[in-house]
Amino acid sequence: MSLPSSVVESGPQSTNSEGLSKTVKGKEEEEGLKRAFNLYLAKENDEKEGSAKRKKNELGQSIQDTDALRSFVAEAANSPRMEEMMESLLENKDLSPRVVSDALLSSEALHFKNEPFWIKTLSVLKALLPGVDYKGVREIMKIAIEKVLLFPPQGLEPSLVAPLSALENLLKYIFDREAALLPGYFIVNEILKSYPENPRWPHWKLIPMISSFLNSFTQTAQMVSCAYRHRLRPIVEHYGKAHVVSTWKLDSNSLKILLKGNQTYERILPYSKEMVEPQTGLLLYVLRQPYSKELAINILGLQKPRKDASSNVAPGALCPALEEVLVNLFVDAMNELSELELDSSLLEYELERRLENNRELWRNLSSELIFFILFQFINFGNFTNALYEKLSAPGEAKSGRDELIWALLQYISGCITKNMIWDFVHALRLINLLYNDKEPIPIPDLNDPNAVKSLSAAAVYIQLSHRARQTEQQPSLSYALPSCLRLHHEFLLNLANVNEGRLGTSLSVTGNEFYMVPVMCNTYSTQDCFQLPIGVLMATIGGIVAENMNPANIIEPLPMETLDCLSVHVKMSLIHSIVTHIQKQVSNKTNTALAPALIETYSRLLVYPELESLGIKGLLNQLLPLVFKQGAWNILHVLLEIFSYRLHHIQSHFRLSLLNHLQQGILLSKHTQLNLCIESTTLKLITGLGNAEVSPPKNSSLNSQGKPVSTVLYGESEELNRVVVLTLARAIHIYGLENQSAIWVKDVLTSVMTLTPHSWPSHTLSNFPTILQDFFKENPGPKENKAQLKSRVEEEYKTWSSMSNEHDIVQHFSNSNNTLFLCVFWKMLLETDHVTPIAYRVLERIGAAKALTAHLRSLCDMLVCEFSKSGGSGHVKNCIDALNNLIWKYKIVSLDRLILCMALRTHEGSEAQVCFFIIQLLLLKPHDFRNRVSEFVRTLSPEHQLLKDFHSKHSEFHQKFPEKFGPDDHSTSPEAPLPVYFSNVCLRFIPVFDIVVHRFLELPPVAKSLETLIDHFSVLYKFHARPITYLYNTLHYYEKRVRDKPSLKKKLVRSITGALKDIRPNGWCLTEEYLNYLAVGEQVTWTHNIEYYVSLIGRLAKSIQGKNAFPKMDWRFNEFPNEGVHAMYVTCVEVMGLPVEPLKVGEYFLEAIWEAHRYIPQDEIPDWINAVGIIISNLPEAYWEGLYIKLVQALTSPPLSQWNLSQTPFRVFNFQATHLVHCQHKLTYLLAISHSVWHHAGFNQIQLLPDLVRDKF
């Protein structure tokens, strides 16, 4: 019996939802009829199989689009034929498995409570997975993980076992590495993405499967992990590698290491516990270092808020993690002070050193507190509340309470008028907590600087009380003054009535209350009576002068001890008063010289980083524009002197801003002295740029109009542009170049060549990095015809001798196309030793420095021609005498300018040697300059911050060797000399001599001449702003040149470091072993031993640990910002100065760790490995070869070439595991050191890795 065709064949199939419903309904009716007539229907096996297949095909083929598919799934979910309908989806070849799986997973009916549909759907999904691409499988896995979160986290009812098992089977299939449905890395990434923020993931039933899968990736994570990454520490420079590379980046919220973008390590792979923990230790280390604020915000990825142009508001983003670390640092500083007071075993010297370290830490912390609050990274109320909570705990130290409240006073006094009184309530709570003594605290001795800090708690209370009265919020000051501070409070209240005479006397040498003025200033800086003590300070330094007094006679500045005892608010008020006084003189166009004491005090105030807004920013953005506008060249000269000779730690963008002003030719003055000062300042700014600072601007600062400020390195001076090129070459050689920076470098070079086309000698080009060499080969500069030059000079001299009309002479020789007058002038001196007045008129008409420098270049080239064909020593002597008279007798050109121009001229071969011979003769043969150098070094000290009488000694030097900047017998009125405070020809010559040394190093035949010059003039490095940095750059950049010249290296290191021996303590730079080597004449042999390299590594490691490996130095007036930077540079200088093959030195450093690890405390081994990484990564490439050789040897010999150890490779290379059980292997150390080196490496070193792999392995 068969069914009617009208029943078997349901109506026409439709792709829309209505047709699909009819199809499903027809199939259900057919099934009902079959069940009713089951006994009467004939059944054949083939017919049954064909019928089942036909039914599936009919159901599946009824779906033609996505909408129909979703409707089909919805119908199936509630259909008694659900299983058959779901199976039919597998037969549809028109729909991709990805589309089907998306429809199933998006079904609203897919819930574990709908168990049959849930289980069948997951079964179908599992069958579909092989046909889904990996992206689709990843989406299925993500949704499956989300579905897991629907199950109850605690307990599992019997009814839920099957649904969860079905989901587990699906995930297990996806996780199956043999199935290869999805890269395992993606699976791990997805598993970790929801952990640990979501406490319900993973579900306890899935934990064995999840754990097993994650554990299978621990070895993968180990392979891409840096050994002891959590113990590595950067060198905290002003701007260095740590600012540029991303290896130190932390998430600002969690302080976890960032791997890529905003992803931290625990989101990627199952890394070790130490790798995924918050790196609080790294941030603590950075913040403890002086001048570390910029690096701290760079590591955390924080952006300084910028003011909105419309609202003038700068919104900021709080960083609670930073706030917490800073709180811990404050508490640590207090605990350290408490421990020192209790430790009776320390020697007096050691105790004093540690106390000084603690004072330096507090000074640094107070500066950081102000910085982070002003930029809105932390909130003062939250900060002081957290401090209160920490210090309320039992057993917390109270010893550093004066230091703490003094640090808080720095912020409170400056911001109290801009905030409501309740913002400072927690500070009052702190005072009540810390000052709970039962007996009154005695009034301190006002001759002790610690008195300022002892009285700070009472000063805070007075300031807050005054603010409360001002705002009528006395009830808000709900914390009474602690009874133990009653005497302090009464003493400070009485100070408000002290008369001016007593205050003035207290600051004198004979006064017995030296710190009375600072105490009064700090207490009343926000009240009207503050004008009396600040007025006394201004009168002391010549800011307020009586009518019968000459400001020039006020020479003694405020000592650093006094300035250190002034709060930030007082220092800001003082610097504001000084700047206002200067601005008044500028506006009134007063020619009266400023008091030397005022200028020196202003210079000392500029070193405080917390005064940046009113200090350096105010100087650049307010004072300088006013000076330019008014043409106050005397004031400009003073400001440039301050920049050149007094400031040590100015951020690069401020220095580049000043360089931008000077290079863009903003000054049109024809004043010779001023032009010389501008050129000298520009030269120092360019040569003083750090290797990491010579880079394209990343985040351009905004000017007052809110527009980006462009930075221009180059200008219209050929000599200075040549120095820019040399600085670029040095920076690229040492720090490398990002790929995207190559365009910027070529743009700079193109602009330089457009403004000042020039060429370079081959011996200079050979030292340039490849990018510069290629550029100058493609863009050769003009070549001078030296033979024609000499004949032209002869013709011009004949013309000078034959012409009689004064007007015609002036017109002819001052013509812009004629650049030979200095040559004529020199020949005039050579022939007659007499100068006619008309020559001065010609010079006056030539005028500006730019035009005269063109004549100077011609003179330098002509001198080389003259000396090349010289006829005997007598003629040479006459030539040098004439040149010397040009400088010292007739004052036509200064020595430093002439030597700079001569050293930078382009000469090849023998002509280059002649050029350097002229320089040598000019510096050594006449006594004029040598006498000045000798007297200057003998009478003056570079430690100006310690001197009271620098100006008087400097004035005596100028009186003995007066410096004039123009001829004496001028036919017109001479230029009025500008007041000089810090500069002289000796100091101006130092950056020029730096360039001279480098140019001599490039030409091997003049090596002996270089040694002679160094013998005579290296004493000037006593006054060099960055002597060790210069030595480091020289030995690094010219490593190939000096590699085989140990005596020359020895001469450089001994001369430059030896120049500082009288002003530096013993042990400040070089090790005892190396000093002994330097002391033995021309000995160049070096008997190395591993202990020497161990001591070098240990010294750097100790410095980074904060354990004082070097004598005490005031980093505010040092070329380096902290001991870690100092230790790195002096270590690298010493290593590069060794008479040892660089390859061997690299090997010795590795062997030092292998040999010495048994003598190093176990917990310090990572610090030593970190130190090795720092040293090697900051040495030239040749020193890396030792590491490369060790790596090649390890990879090409057992056990790595043929594993024969009982432990697995992963066990051997797990440094932390092997380190803990004292079973270290050389391979373990080699890997850890390699990781450390490349972690600290820069762009140029990382870029060599592919070459290393290709060439060595």
UniProtKB/TrEMBL annotation:
<keyword id="KW-0539">Nucleus</keyword>
<keyword id="KW-0804">Transcription</keyword>
<feature type="region of interest" description="Disordered">
    <location>
        <begin position="1"/>
        <end position="29"/>
    </location>
</feature>
<comment type="similarity">
    <text>Belongs to the Mediator complex subunit 23 family.</text>
</comment>
<dbReference type="InterPro" id="IPR021629">
    <property type="entry name" value="Mediator_Med23"/>
</dbReference>
<dbReference type="Pfam" id="PF11573">
    <property type="entry name" value="Med23"/>
</dbReference>
<dbReference type="GO" id="GO:0006357">
    <property type="term" value="P:regulation of transcription by RNA polymerase II"/>
</dbReference>
<dbReference type="GO" id="GO:0016592">
    <property type="term" value="C:mediator complex"/>
</dbReference>
<protein>
    <recommendedName>
        <fullName>Mediator of RNA polymerase II transcription subunit 23</fullName>
    </recommendedName>
</protein>
<dbReference type="GO" id="GO:0005667">
    <property type="term" value="C:transcription regulator complex"/>
</dbReference>
<dbReference type="GO" id="GO:0010628">
    <property type="term" value="P:positive regulation of gene expression"/>
</dbReference>
<keyword id="KW-0805">Transcription regulation</keyword>
<feature type="compositionally biased region" description="Polar residues">
    <location>
        <begin position="1"/>
        <end position="20"/>
    </location>
</feature>
